[in-house]
Recover the amino acids of this structure.
């Protein structure tokens, strides 16, 4: 298997995740796109781990998964709080930092 | 006192200030200070005279001191004679000096100066005493005395001056005091106008005087009188500059000494108080011009070429003045005006004498004239004070006063005889010497003029005396003799009028020429003719004078019986025209005021007004308008548009850019993320491209 | 090798399509389900790469917990079940451009760097993928990061409770 295949697949997923982060209005959908990006990184890590026959890549992939879980937890908690205060999860409405 | 002669003018100057500040509080209104001061000056002047005579007598070999020499000389005992050189005593203090230019103040005491000191202080003293009675209830008594003191100080400064600038200072000072004193009763419009006329007419002459002084300075290189005289006698002296200087100086003399054509102020000056007329316009100020001529005689002598005979500017002017003054005296009803025209005429004699080379004669005539003219004026004052109820009109208010005012009458008669030139009074000797010297210096025409003048003088004075003292009293007052303060000065002056001639009694039996010896300058003096006593000419002049008295007396005393002549000027058209011509003073006043002055005044005033309105105001208004336009332009274009535009522009740019930049901070996180990722992409692209 | 390549390509295309579905779906729940497909595909890829433990952890954690969390989040934030207006904001196009651009750059870089490199499936590789090997690596070489991650999880747990609780 060509290494580049995995890497380009990972790149594709990552850029799709970027699109989702930038283009989606719903905060939960943005979080989902972030998950896409994290998964892309994971695929990258594991591919490199297979290529170099090193275990470190997989270890790191595990850590990424853990951190992704923690991050989603916190993220959704924050989204809930925003929802409670602003009664919407439309990110266009959350512009209190507007200059 | 010769060495400290500056004290003599200083004392009246100080008294002027004292009277001004303290006079009102004194019991006699300041006259005490004035009389005391002038008295002191008189005493010091006598000391100066004594010292000078002593100096002369010692130098010329007289073995006695001056007083004894005076006595011996007067009474015919041998005193000093001779032509020894005696220099004047000069003391000079430099005021300012720069390069070759120097001026200062100083005194120059010689015979002429001490003689004038004596005359001025004596007559001033007598006038001061006289005025205590005459001006007794005057509203500005103190001020009057202050100005008298100032006048005396200025005149004495003029007399002792050793340079022409100091002389000019005194000259202007006496002009100022004359103005102040003529206009003493300025509430009357006529008086203030007369004062102004006097001042401005003499001022006109002063233009020439100042130009003359300046030209003389440039010729000589100094203002000093001694140096100027020495220069004038040098063969290498610039004759044209001397002539120009002489003309300039002489114009000043014309103005101040009332010569034709600037004599018009003197009769009008009679508007002042009579003692003032006596002091200033008879004895002292008006002779300042003659004094100047005598002081700077070498300049005139060589400038006008007096030694050459025939005719020159000076003698011609003097001669004309004699005649016109004398003729005008005939048609005056005011006694003071008669005396004023007489003064003009006598001044003409002095100037003519100077112009004919008769220096000693002119100065001696100045000396004697001061006494008898002052006497006549004070006598007229006495008549008005006590006889004619303060009027000077002879025809209306006087007549027959000899019965009521004997002292005044006899002193007036003595003054008249002296003026007419009757032997042995002072006027005879002085006038005679003028005529003789003129005749012997190749000025024969003017000898004739002088004789005619003498005839006229005698005639008009007789008329005057008749109208005042003879006939019936025509006035409204209660005539009585004046008080002693008035009559004593009259008596003193009449004594001098009689005896002053003694000093030049060069005929039998005295053969005296003391005046000449003591007064004529012995340094820097041109060679002039010194005629001896000419009995024939003396007899002719005496005869002419007597004839004048006689004819006038015949005319006036036999007035009623002269049917054909009486009222001639009313009936005959030619006579009337001549009379009118004289009454209008040859229409000179009209010429001066209505023609010359009015044309200058009118056109000059209009021209000045036009220049002021159209040129000066135009410039000023234009400047103002220009400033306004510039201001508006600056405001509208520069301030509003450029400066404010720049400031507002900066603000707007900031605002706009802020507004634009504001969009970057939309508060929307995804926008930020977009920018972030775009930047990352670009950066990685650059890195990729850089490393391939 | 042919079988693995075919498997890879099938999975890759499925994942790609599902990924696009996540970011382009107008229904939130559909997007979540598409995400499940992507996550599952990733797990399959891991198995292809002989990383079994990571694959099952992926399924367990990601699909089993995180997606459930997402669904709870969708429910609690009353996300509309049916499409209501658009789910995308107004910078779609710019986002698309940026992501395409980034994809291009990364791909160019990868092609340039790793073009032609092969992953060889061999015994050593299989050994690495075992849980025993992973565990020894974690608990020997990466113990500290492991402990830190534990702390992180604790912090996240407490934090989530604190943030989201009702006062």
């Amino acid at each position: 298997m060509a290494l580049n295949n995995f890497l380009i697949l990972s790149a594709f997923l990552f850029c799709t995740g970027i699109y989702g982060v930038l283009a989606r209005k719903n905060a939960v959908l943005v979080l989902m796109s972030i998950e896409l990006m994290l998964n892309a990184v994971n695929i990258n890590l594991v591919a490199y781990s297979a290529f170099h026959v090193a275990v470190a890549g997989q270890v790191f992939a595990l850590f990424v998964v853990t951190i992704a879980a923690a991050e989603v937890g916190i993220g959704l908690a924050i989204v809930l709080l925003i929802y409670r205060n602003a009664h919407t999860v439309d990110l266009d409405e959350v512009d209190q930092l507007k200059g | 006192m010769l060495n400290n002669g500056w004290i003599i003018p200083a004392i009246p100057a100080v008294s002027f200030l004292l009277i001004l500040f303290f006079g009102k509080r004194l019991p006699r209104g300041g006259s005490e200070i004035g009389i005391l001061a002038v008295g002191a000056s008189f005493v010091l002047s006598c000391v100066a005279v004594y010292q000078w005579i002593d100096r002369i007598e010692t130098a010329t070999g007289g073995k006695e001191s001056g007083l004894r020499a005076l006595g011996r000389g007067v009474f015919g005992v041998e005193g000093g004679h001779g032509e020894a050189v005696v220099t004047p005593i000069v003391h000079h203090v430099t005021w300012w000096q720069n390069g070759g230019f120097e001026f200062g103040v100083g005194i120059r005491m010689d015979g002429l100066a001490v003689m004038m000191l004596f005359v001025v202080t004596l007559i001033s003293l007598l006038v001061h005493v006289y005025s205590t009675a005459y001006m007794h209830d005057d509203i500005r008594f103190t001020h009057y005395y202050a100005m008298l003191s100032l006048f005396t100080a200025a005149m004495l400064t003029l007399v002792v001056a050793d340079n022409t600038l100091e002389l000019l200072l005194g000259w202007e000072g006496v002009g100022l005091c004359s103005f102040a004193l003529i206009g003493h009763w300025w509430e009357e419009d006529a008086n203030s106008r007369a004062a102004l006329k006097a001042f401005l007419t003499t001022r006109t002459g002063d233009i020439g005087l100042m130009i003359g002084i300046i030209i003389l300075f440039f010729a000589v290189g100094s203002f000093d009188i001694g140096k100027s005289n020495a220069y004038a006698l040098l063969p290498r002296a610039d004759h044209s500059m001397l002539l120009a200087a002489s003309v300039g100086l002489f114009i000043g003399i014309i103005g101040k000494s009332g010569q034709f054509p600037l004599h018009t102020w003197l009769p009008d000056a009679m508007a002042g108080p009579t003692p003032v007329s006596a002091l200033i316009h008879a004895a002292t100020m008006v002779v300042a011009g003659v004094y100047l001529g005598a002081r700077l005689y070498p300049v005139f002598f060589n400038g006008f070429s007096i030694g050459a005979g025939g005719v020159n500017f000076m003698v011609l002017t003097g001669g004309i003045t004699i005649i016109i003054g004398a003729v005008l005296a005939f048609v005056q009803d005011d006694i003071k005006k008669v005396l004023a025209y007489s003064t003009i005429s006598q001044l003409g004699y002095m100037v003519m004498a100077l112009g004919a080379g008769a220096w000693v004669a002119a100065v001696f005539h100045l000396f004697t004239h001061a006494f008898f003219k002052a006497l006549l004026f004070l006598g007229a004052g006495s008549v008005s004070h006590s006889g004619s109820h303060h009027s000077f009109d002879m025809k209306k208010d006087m007549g027959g006063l000899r019965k009521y005012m004997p002292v005044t009458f006899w002193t007036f008669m003595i003054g008249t005889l002296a003026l007419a030139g009757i032997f042995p009074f002072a006027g005879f000797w002085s006038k005679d010497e003028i005529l003789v010297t003129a005749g012997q210096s190749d000025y024969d025409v003017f000898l004739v003029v002088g004789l005619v003048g003498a005839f006229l003088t005698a005639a008009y004075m007789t008329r005057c005396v008749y109208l005042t003292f003879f006939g019936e009293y025509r006035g409204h007052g209660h005539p009585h003799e004046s008080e002693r303060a008035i009559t004593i000065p009259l008596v003193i002056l009449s004594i001098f009028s009689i005896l002053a001639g003694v000093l030049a009694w060069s005929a039998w039996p005295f053969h005296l020429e003391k005046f000449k010896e003591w007064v004529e300058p012995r340094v820097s003096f041109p060679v002039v003719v010194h005629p001896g006593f000419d009995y024939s000419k003396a007899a002719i002049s005496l005869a002419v004078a007597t004839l004048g008295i006689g004819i006038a007396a015949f005319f006036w005393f036999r007035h009623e019986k002269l049917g054909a002549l009486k009222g001639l000027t009313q009936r005959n058209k030619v006579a009337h025209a001549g009379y009118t011509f004289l009454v209008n003073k040859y229409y000179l006043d009209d010429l001066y005021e209505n023609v010359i002055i009015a044309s200058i005044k009118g056109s000059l005033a209009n021209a000045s007004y036009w220049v002021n309105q159209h040129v000066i105001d135009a410039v000023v208004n234009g400047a103002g308008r220009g400033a306004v336009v510039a201001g508006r332009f600056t405001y509208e274009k520069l301030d509003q548009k450029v400066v404010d535009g720049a400031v507002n522009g900066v603000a707007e740019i900031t605002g706009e850019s802020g507004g634009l930049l504001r969009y970057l901070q939309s508060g929307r996180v995804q926008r930020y993320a977009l920018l972030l990722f775009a930047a990352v992409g670009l950066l990685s692209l650059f890195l990729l491209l850089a490393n391939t | 090798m042919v079988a693995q390549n075919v498997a890879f390509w099938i999975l890759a295309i499925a994942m790609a399509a599902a990924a696009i579905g996540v970011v382009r779906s107008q229904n939130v729940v559909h997007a979540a389900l598409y995400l499940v497909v992507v996550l599952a595909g990733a797990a399959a890829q891991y198995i292809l790469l002989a990383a079994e433990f990571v694959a099952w952890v992926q399924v367990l954690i990601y699909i089993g917990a995180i997606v459930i969390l997402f669904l709870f989040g969708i429910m609690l934030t009353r996300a509309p079940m049916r499409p209501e207006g658009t789910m995308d904001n107004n910078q779609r196009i710019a986002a698309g451009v940026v992501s395409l651009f980034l994809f291009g750059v990364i791909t160019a870089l990868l092609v340039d760097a790793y073009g032609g490199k092969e992953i060889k499936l061999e015994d050593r590789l299989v050994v690495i993928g075992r849980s025993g090997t992973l565990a020894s690596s974690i608990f020997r070489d990466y113990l500290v990061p492991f402990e830190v991650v534990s702390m992180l999880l604790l912090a996240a747990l407490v934090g989530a409770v604190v943030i989201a609780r009702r006062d």
